[in-house]
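If you are new to this repository, start here. Below is one unmodified record pulled from the training split, so you can see the exact layout before writing a loader.
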Amino acid sequence: MRNSRMALAALAAGVLTLAGCGGGSSSTTGSGPGGLSVPKADKLATLGAGEGTVNIVSWAGYVEDGSTDKTVDWVTPFEKETGCQVNNKVAATSDEMVTLMKTGDYDVVSASGDASLRLIYGGDVAPVNTDLIANYKDVFDGLKNKAWNSVDGVAYGIPHGRGANLLMYNKNTVTPAPTSWGAVFDANSPYKGKITAYDSPIYIADAALYLMKTKPDLGIKNPYALDDKQFQASVDLLKEQNKNIGEYWSDYTKEVQAFKSGNSVLGTSWQVIANLTKADGAPIETVLPTEGATGWSDTWMVAAKAKHPNCAYLWMNHIVSPKANAQVAEWFGEAPANKLACDQTADKAFCTTFHASDESYFDQVWYWTTPLAQCVDGRKDVTCKDYSAWTQAWTTIKG
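And here is the target side for that same chain:
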């Protein structure tokens, strides 16, 4: 299951030079928001024989070999088919993933949108030749060539899955049923002390999204692109909310327990947490509020200095194949990236529950991305707060 996704550092300053992946390659470069340069990079031009090993950094639950649950194993079939022995390092945070990828010891990483841009602009990952990933053609178009996994139309990874940050509530306690994020930002909330929120600087975007819809005079167009005034308004809202927060969560098991015990009755959550909480008998429901929501989409990215690039590509193709993508989506609790995976899930209602093919649903989701000083909404006349500022502010918000 997903561990904490907290604590991002600022983007490294300057332009770094990427080393090639090895084998045949073609070079590519580009420019990001505000003209931020993307280091020149080499992508694999042809797929060769596997090197016998692939070293992976992943979220917990993404690389299962039967050791957690003997019935949950999509690693062993991959190893038998390709001859690539999988060595997996589970990372607890996006920050840890970035640090590990900088060591040069790993070939591929399952990066979230709050880390992927740092990896791209830091020169730690290379663009991906999607022509070498046979299963890429079946990935939902809504996940391809997005702000967090591409630059100037160049793909820097293979989409893995996605999900929304939902509003979860105890239906017996919270009445009427909430439809807006205003329920968690109400300064006079009757549920004071029993409201919960995600414990991460990226949660500032949730406040910004709410203000974007309810305070249009602030001019927020993207919850990850906040100038001084917009950022301060978001921070102020979260400081007020803090007075009503019972606890912040980053460990999903703790949120499940809090809703089961009644210590929490209202707050942000994931669909997988809702499913587990409901399965344990807690009277909870979830809703995608009228303002929309933030969310996440993870991307498999190959290291710029991958020692085993062929096995890395073989892994990326395997993990987004219909069967493996269905397995990991069900085990982890997220919408799969491969549209054909929905025919492979054990629970035939799974993709409906997780809105896998419902693009109108995901059109309401602002996927996590790394805030930059060069505003990611395209503004050039102002400077936006980068993630270092978000991290500093989060400390003051929690007090």
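Two things worth knowing about this chain: The domain at 25-162+297-358 is CATH 3.40.190.10 (D-Maltodextrin-Binding Protein; domain 2). The chain has two domains: 25-162+297-358, 164-294+370-398.
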